[in-house]
């Protein structure tokens, strides 16, 4: 019988009772639980690598030692069974495989013995060249096993260090405050992706290019592009002008407005492009008040319409700081914190006039400004003071009859739409820093959305911060001229929860295989968008932790917002024709290749016209991008060229439909293999188009061919018109 494979079946009932008894007897949590299955007295478990000994004969041709040895579950089986594994030692005589042969289960470290019978039917096959792998955990059977703690490099965390350390302690993870030579699971940077240049694995809490993308000028350009395509959907961002290039346009438009109606006297707010914490912000009522120069250099800034009628509480203006987690770009995953902060001005609000334009404590909600006001109130309560929790403000509004669900629904829509606007450029930065095939980390990032509620409760986007403050203490004057940092309860409650639950979501032990197996190009047609694991899948270490304070909003609301992702499809074309890995700009040859491959030239639009178009647009954009690192056509210039080409090709349609039609045409041409087959196409254009942004999952078998799929994708916007706004609000959870 020793020449045959052994088949063993351990009944689920025995395994459950074994797990319960093991816990009652206090098995050491630092050791892996070991179970001996035998027909003779229990034997010790060898510390050697996994092998199987049957009837005193070693059947493993990998390990040298004879005798009893343990069988360890494979990596894949750990994922299937959750977080636990089972070690088994087999020994016995020739009757080990007989039906009805009685077995004993001995739990090491306890005196507990469980008895049962072996059943050769439906057993587990022992192959001499492989370890025994438990394929499934049935009926919820789990054994407590100590996980290797997740390692976090905090050497670059800077101002978020205290909140991060509290979060790591709550999770019982391992911190490396000085870094280490061996790779860590998570790297926490305080400023940018490039804080540590030597990371080739793990996860980093910053995306490359996020700082650049969320500068006020680039954010305004990204939203402006979306406003051209979807003006009604992107009306939450104030009308903006970019300085100094649009200074003349701004002056002309304001002069015309005042000439048409002398009673109109709008107010504008000027924000430096790279400013933060309220530095350099000022209000004006006339274009002549603009401060365009700093020394001998032109000042890069954005001027926006000022919201003159904000919602007030206690006669004070306030804004909302909402924390948003961008978990991944491919697939796009967005989470919103259920709790946020509200920052109050310290001077009662009055509509702007020439007399009070300089009253920063009345008009600007920045905490870093108002904290220096004599009226600033530090409070240990979350519902009073100059900084309060978002929930306390919402409860107060609800008490006045405000529809909080609608307000929250509108805020969610604002966050998703803004993220969709900035993602295309982020994809370009990402492929430049971590090209496909190059080893590198994956990225995630916490963003700070600053949102103002108007008097009619409509949310308005003020700005998005790539590095929101995560300090959980504030500076307080203890005596005249003596300042000290003291804990801030409201900051700690909100920010520690956001960081802790971000880490929980990024826990490498919780990553689902459906996400990790995705190609860089995105999801194929017919693949379901992977959703986040349910709360019941927690590890034992998380048993005492509160439920997640982060709520997934995308892909949860994909159906409502997927039609907005047109510019991402343009970015996919742009990335495909970049050619050289790490490049961020399209050269003239690559642009001609794009035109030729997509068959966009004809007798009325020759290749000479293509060259003129490239030179004209590239020259104009190079003058606006003073910090450009490379020559050539960037994504924003390519989008402008694409809009121009769409307008020439489909003159009778609105811009949105023109762009969608041209995208369909280009994607159809790229899906058709050229002479010489698919391999030739992959050489000339090395990057595949992400399909996840072209279409949603379409279960209809009639839509399996590319043509119907593209036509179905083009109907996204019209289908969206049937979805009333209340359909989103009905699904929201408080």
TrEMBL record:
| Keyword annotations of the record | ATP-binding, Ligase, Nucleotide-binding
Looking at the Swiss-Prot or TrEMBL record, what is one Pfam family this protein matches? TTL
> Record keywords: Ion transport included?
no
| Comp. bias (Low complexity) | 35-46
Q: What Gene Ontology terms describe what this protein does at the molecular function level?
A: ATP binding; tubulin binding; tubulin-glutamic acid ligase activity
Q: Which GO terms describe its cellular component?
A: ciliary basal body
Q: Extract the InterPro entries matched here.
A: TTL/TTLL_fam
Q: Does the keyword S-adenosyl-L-methionine apply?
A: no
Write out the GO biological process terms.
microtubule cytoskeleton organization
Where do the segments described as Disordered lie?
Answer: 12-56, 671-711
Stretches of Polar residues bias are at 693-705
| Coiled coil start-end | none
What residue spans carry the Basic and acidic residues bias annotation?
12-27
The molecule here is called: Tubulin polyglutamylase TTLL11 isoform X1
């Amino acid at each position: 019988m020793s020449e045959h494979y052994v088949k063993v079946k351990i009944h689920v009932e025995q395994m459950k009772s074994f797990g319960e008894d093991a816990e009652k007897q206090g098995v050491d949590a630092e050791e892996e639980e070991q179970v001996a299955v035998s027909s003779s007295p229990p034997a010790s478990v060898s510390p050697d690598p996994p092998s199987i000994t049957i009837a005193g004969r070693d059947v493993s041709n990998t390990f040298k030692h004879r005798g009893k040895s343990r069988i360890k579950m494979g990596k894949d089986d750990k994922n299937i069974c959750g977080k636990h594994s089972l070690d088994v030692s087999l020994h016995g005589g020739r009757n080990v495989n007989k039906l009805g042969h009685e077995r004993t289960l001995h739990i090491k470290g306890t005196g507990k013995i469980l008895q049962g019978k072996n059943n050769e039917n439906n057993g587990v096959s022992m192959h001499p060249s492989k370890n025994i792998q438990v394929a499934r955990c049935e009926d919820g059977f789990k054994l407590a096993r100590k996980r290797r703690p997740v390692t976090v490099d905090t050497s670059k965390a800077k101002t978020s260090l205290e909140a991060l350390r509290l979060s790591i302690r709550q999770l019982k993870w391992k911190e490396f405050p000085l870094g280490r030579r061996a790779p860590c699971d998570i790297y926490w940077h305080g400023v940018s992706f490039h804080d540590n240049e030597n990371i080739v694995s793990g996860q980093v809490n910053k995306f490359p290019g996020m700082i650049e993308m969320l500068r006020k000028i680039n954010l305004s350009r990204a939203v402006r592009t979306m406003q051209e395509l979807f003006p009604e959907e992107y009306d939450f961002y104030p009308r903006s002008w970019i300085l100094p290039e649009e200074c003349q346009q701004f002056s002309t438009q304001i002069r015309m407005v005042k000439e048409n109606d002398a009673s109109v006297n709008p107010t504008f707010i000027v924000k430096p492009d790279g400013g933060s914490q309220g530095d350099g912000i000022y209000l004006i009522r006339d274009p002549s008040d603009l401060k365009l120069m700093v020394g001998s250099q032109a000042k890069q800034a954005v001027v926006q319409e000022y919201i003159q009628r904000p919602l007030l509480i206690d006669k004070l203006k306030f804004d909302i700081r909402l924390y948003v987690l961008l978990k991944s770009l491919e697939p796009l995953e967005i989470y919103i914190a259920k709790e946020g902060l509200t920052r109050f001005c310290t001077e009662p609000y009055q509509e702007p006039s020439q007399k009070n334009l300089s009253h920063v404590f009345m008009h600007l909600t920045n905490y870093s400004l108002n904290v220096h006001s004599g009226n600033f109130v530090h409070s240990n309560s979350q519902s009073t003071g100059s900084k309060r929790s978002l929930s306390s403000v919402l409860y107060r509004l609800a008490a006045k009859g405000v529809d909080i669900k609608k307000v929250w629904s509108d805020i969610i829509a604002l966050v998703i739409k803004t993220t969709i606007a900035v993602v295309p450029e982020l994809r370009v930065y990402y492929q430049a820093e971590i090209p496909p095939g190059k080893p590198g980390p994956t990225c995630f990032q916490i963003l700070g959305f600053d949102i103002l509620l108007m008097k009619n409760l409509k949310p308005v986007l003020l700005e998005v911060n790539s590095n929101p403050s995560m300090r959980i203490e504030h500076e307080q004057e203890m005596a005249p001229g003596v300042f000290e940092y003291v804990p801030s309860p409201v900051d700690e409650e909100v920010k520690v929860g956001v960081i802790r639950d971000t880490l929980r979501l990024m826990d490498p032990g919780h990553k689902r295989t459906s996400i990790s197996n995705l190609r860089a190009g995105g999801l194929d047609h017919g693949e379901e968008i992977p959703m986040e694991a349910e709360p019941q899948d927690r590890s034992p270490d998380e048993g005492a932790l509160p439920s997640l304070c982060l709520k997934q909003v995308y892909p949860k609301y994909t159906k409502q917002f997927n039609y907005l992702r047109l510019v991402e499809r343009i970015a996919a074309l742009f990335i495909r024709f970049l050619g050289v890995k790490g490049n961020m700009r399209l050269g003239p040859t690559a642009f001609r290749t794009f035109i030729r491959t997509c068959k966009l030239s004809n007798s009325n639009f020759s290749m000479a016209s293509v060259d003129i178009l490239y030179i004209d647009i590239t020259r104009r954009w190079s003058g606006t991008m003073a910090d450009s690192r490379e020559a050539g056509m960037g994504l924003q210039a390519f989008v402008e060229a694409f809009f121009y080409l769409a307008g020439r090709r489909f003159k009778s349609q609105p811009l949105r439909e023109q762009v969608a039609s041209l995208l369909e045409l280009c994607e159809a041409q790229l899906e058709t293999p050229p002479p010489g087959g698919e391999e030739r196409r992959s050489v000339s254009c090395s990057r595949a188009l992400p399909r996840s942004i072209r279409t949603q999952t379409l279960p209809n078998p009639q839509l399996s061919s590319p043509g119907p799929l593209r036509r179905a994708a083009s109907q996204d916007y019209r289908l969206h018109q049937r979805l009333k706004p209340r359909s989103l609000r009905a699904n929201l959870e408080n």
